[in-house]
Amino acid sequence: MSEPRSRAVSGGAGAPGDRSPSEPAGGPVPDADEALRLARRRFFREMASDAVRAAATLAGAAGALRQTTEEMASSVLADGGVGGGVGAAANPAAGAAPPPPDAPGGFRSPFRLEAERLVLVDQRRLPDELVDVVCESAGDVAQAIREMVVRGAPALGQVAAAGLALAARRAIAARPYARRAILRGSANALVNARPTAVSVRWATSRMLARYAEVGELLDDGPAVAAALRAEAEAIIAEATADHAMMAGLGAGLLPVPDGRPLRLLTHCNTGPLACGQVGTALGVVQALAADGREVHVYVDETRPWLQGARLTAWELGQAGIPHTILADAAAGWLLARGEVDAILVGADRIAANGDTANKIGTYPLAVLAARHGVPFYFVAPTATIDDEALDGAAIPVEMRSPAEVTACAGRRVAPAGTDALNPSFDITPAELITAIVTEAGVLRPPYGPAIEAAIAWREARRPAPDPAPDGPVEPASPAPAEPPPAPPATA
Ligand code: MRU
């Protein structure tokens, strides 16, 4: 894993005029900064309305949306706000000359899969610095996942798939048995890197299933590599279409207050940085904004990694959506004052009974929502459902280093040697959840049958990668209460 380039991020949450130490003396001229900021804002707005259009127009949504957003990103980056951008060099479709080495960076999806490498935005350094991290192997990708360079359950599934595509590419000349060991070992390393986010297991299982289809002991290394590359690209494209679908469905659930903005509360980060494109809970917010609805988003800062304060505030700022950050512990105060109309969050793993794991601090929000009669929604693709986990007790909760709690933004805040507990996720019991928005439809209680139907839908769209030992899931009746929409087109 290497870090080739570092850029100051202009238009981020840092104070105007903030400069990274790596920025050239003088930095970009103010007009260039302003032009880049406006270009990014336009990009986000257009991306959000595209998401909604794609949700409405199902045929070809995945490819079309991906292409459009890539083109828009490329043009923003190619402009670089007049100076050239980091992404333009690597995107031949942009037709742009390589950027000058010290050109300012710009917004983009958190990763870019090239022929022989995966380029990640180092999310630990946002919002103040845009730093590329290059992964050349599945091991690099696993390390980047473990170290939070890339995070957010949907993005993790997509980069894990990309990691296996890289592994197959590097193993082109390997003997079949060696290739099989490499691919299986890589899949294990990726799954173990962040154990709660089941989308990593889902994506790697699907990649291995494709490998099995092609022939695990096939001698033709290039054919295996090409098939796994195509599968990774399909996973990424489908995620884009699925998230667009959820954005439209979620937006349709929310009330239209009279004469004032809709007030939403969210936790952690669920926008394009966490999801590849569009987003889950934040995708819904972007769909509302694209529809011209007035929204105000309260953003929990989300200790200890501050994904809310650093990333969600940055994305909402880029999109021009009004927002306010608050300490996690202040949410109860806000809810008690009646100042939140709904809570929207993403999910890392949904058990068969609807119990749902998400960023630590989600469960107390759900308790508060129930106490104050505020609807509480999860927005998550069906790849987040783990029907092997019968309930929340079966979901593994990742425990991270105590040092993440005893320090804040890289500075120790607790007395040296203090012990700390650092569960990265908590489990919200199904009974506290108003609805779960998936690309297969809006799931309502009782969640057991609704989740079964959503899984049947998912597996009908594409055969289950890893059937349970006692055979594939029986066809189920549609999810109760609200039938799933027509399935989005797969790439
Ligand atoms: O530890 P993170 O930053 O990977 O946690 C992310 C979250 O908990 C998100 O809410 C979740 O992945 C759901 S949608 C992106």
Percent range of helical residues: 40-55%
* Percentage of β-strand residues: 5-15%
Radius of gyration: 22 Å
Low-confidence stretches: 6-30, 43-107, 466-491
Q: In total, how many beta strands? A: 17
Question: What small ligands are held by the chains?
Answer: 5-S-methyl-1-O-phosphono-5-thio-D-ribulose
What summary fits the major beta sheet? 7 strands, mixed
Q: Tell me the distance between the termini.
A: 30 Å
Q: Structural class, judged by helices and strands?
A: alpha/beta
The level 1 CATH classification of the largest domain is: Mainly Alpha
Short key terms for the protein model shown above:
alpha/beta; Rossmann fold; 15 helices; 491 residues; 43% helix; 17 strands; four-stranded antiparallel beta sheet; globular; 2 domains; seven-stranded mixed beta sheet; disordered C terminus; single chain; binds 5-S-methyl-1-O-phosphono-5-thio-D-ribulose; Four Helix Bundle (Hemerythrin (Met), subunit A)
Secondary structure topology:
Blueprint: E1 6-8, H1 30-56, H2 61-79, H3 86-90, E2 111-113, E3 118-121, E4 129-135, H4 138-146, H5 153-170, H6 176-193, H7 198-214, H8 221-253, E5 262-266, H9 272-275, H10 281-290, E6 295-300, H11 307-319, E7 323-326, H12 331-336, E8 342-345, E9 349-351, E10 356-359, H13 362-372, E11 376-379, E12 385-386, H14 403-406, E13 407-408, E14 411-412, E15 425-428, E16 435-438, E17 441-443, H15 447-461
Parallel strand pairs: 5-6, 5-8, 6-7, 8-11, 9-12, 11-16
Antiparallel strand pairs: 1-4, 2-3, 3-4, 9-10, 10-15, 13-14, 16-17
The structure holds 5-S-methyl-1-O-phosphono-5-thio-D-ribulose (MRU).
